[in-house]
Amino acid sequence: MTFQLAPPVPQYPLADKGPALYHALIENLQSIPGVRGAAVCSGIPFGAGNYARHPMITTEASVLPPGTAVPIDWRSVSNGYFDTMRIPLLRGRTFTDADVRTSQLVMVVSQTTAQKFFGDADPIGRTLRPSAKPEIAYTIVGVVGDIRDQALNQQTPTLYYGLQQRGTWPLMDVVVRGDARTDGSAEALLPSIRQRVHDIDAGLALANVNTMDQWLSNSAAQPRLNTVLLSVFASVALLIAAIGIYGVLAYSVNQRTREIGLRMALGATPRSVLQLIVGQGMKVVLIGVGIGLVGGLALGRAVSSLVFGVPIHDPATFSLVAVVLTAVALAACIIPARRAARVDPMVALREE
Length: 352
Fold this sequence. Notes:
- Helices cover 45% and strands 18% of the residues.
- By secondary structure, the protein is an alpha+beta fold.
- The strands form three sheets. The protein has a six-stranded mixed β-barrel with strand order 3-4-11-6-8-7. Strands 2-12-1-13 form a four-stranded antiparallel sheet. A two-stranded antiparallel ribbon has the order 9-10.
- A hairpin with a 6-residue loop joins β9 (147-148) and β10.
């Protein structure tokens, strides 16, 4: 379950009372039965905003030319955020209660961020600096997994500041993870969450209350619509292709009535006529399917933004499409072929 809070800045200054407020809130939320974790972030993935980016540089040995500034998305997060959001720790550590404003400035970076600056070298202990304030150095103490921030098919290089050191924003996201072993859904925790927030400050109101599943579904709405539209167009194209194949073969059979009658008068069986018509029709179909597969491989990148978790050259998808097209074309071939197999040779010759 996620929601946003906007405490009055005069009452809760961002640098000191803001972090203290959220620290107390997290402790209150974690005491709710069935809650596995709670945390605060200045912008959750797929959420309603608070996305910030600033250029970073490093004075350490880097794979980049000296002084190169790289824009990186950043978040201010509380202790326990990575565990609550199930973002894996790959190296080093995350934030602790010892990371306060008077201690060494530290940060946690995503794997892609570390690779952008340091390649495959160990980034722990190295520093990154805001290009606007290069005199301020943040020491990297941990590397976490990459996140998908605003689109499922895009991994976002990210860095994280500790809430106690960086302070809060006027609007912050709060995340609460329930225990899957307890009864009820995430929404079942909402009454208890509202009560714990009001216990801290009765004047605080919850905004943008959603589950992470809802945020994720909302972010995929446009790609989902595009996919549905493409599926409808593809179905119509498949129907038109089937009608076209049937029409061409039906016309061909009608034009070849005398030939088919002669074949059958000379001993051809209905089965051999059926195989002849279907074989000639499917030869063209298979050539078309082959050309289509080559075109699909060539144009795969054009639709890569519409899919997630599926390679653009996925063998299973291409095989399934080829089988479906071939099956539809076969059905379209069989209908006129069966009519040809029922031609009476005497009637056909008499008409000629």
